[in-house]
Amino acid sequence: MTEGPAAAPAEAVLPSALRGLDLTDIRTRSRKDGKIYIYARGGTGWLRAEARGDRLLEVQTDGAGLPQPLIETLLPAAVRAEPRLAEIARLTEIDLDDDGEISVEGFAADGMRIEIEFSRDGTLKDFERERDDRRSLSEAAAREKLVALGYTDIGFMERGGRHVTALATNPYGDTVEVRLDDQGRVERERLWQN
To answer: Of 38, 88, 139, 153, which sits 20 to 30 A from 77 (CA to CA)?
Structure first.
């Protein structure tokens, strides 16, 4: 039996679903409960993932959307065939719950935010479409504020309702998760250790 090519050293720590996506700047952190948090740069932006062993639990992107090969790997055919999924022009998050439920989030072509939940067998459970009215800073404004505060190497960025969280290097040279409130003030900074 012939084995495929060995994974690059940084890629070797990734769950198999993330391998082969040409990810760079791979950063991982393990927790005592067995979860692994992963940040990596892809072709269209940063990717954030949670895994337990080789099982991917959640993946999201701050770029143009999740790579199609990853979507096809993570979503069963019944979910991919759901007509409402086609309304999502930019799929930004897939969450695979321990009980088998699947949640996806993204944005329609008109900018509306869409969330869809499926049962384990791919049956539609919930569909929500709403205007994206988060009051947090825009990504550009948050990046500008972080630079002004002395942060560099600003990577993955996630907008919440009233905050923005980013992976960056602080003025001391530490890789951290930093959270800004809706006024651009640092709410929290947590050391990120590989």
So the answer is: 38
